[in-house]
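Lecture notes, unit on protein representations.

Consider one protein chain, 109 amino acids long.
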Amino acid sequence: MSEIQNLQTYDPFADTGEEEAGQPQGYIHIRIQQRNGRKTLTTVQGLPSEYDQKKLLKAFKKEFACNGTLVQDEELGQIIQLQGDQRLKVQNFLGDNGIDKNIIKIHGF
């Protein structure tokens, strides 16, 4: 009879300890949240730390003619919230200003 050997099984759910839980893997996430009726919020998270969040928010507000705020989250850090559906505008703005569009992920609808 032949022997059955278990050749080093791989557990895809094992914690390797390489990345911190809850942190985006180098991606910039642009999400939309439905408020009430036609009102929406656009959130931007995962921006690199070399970019000043306050200056980006100020540029977004001026460029897109919308209001916005910075929200501090204990797990995700600073998140930019903008009024309205600004997902494509934010993606194009970041792409035009030196951020690779391949690391920008758009979520929603």
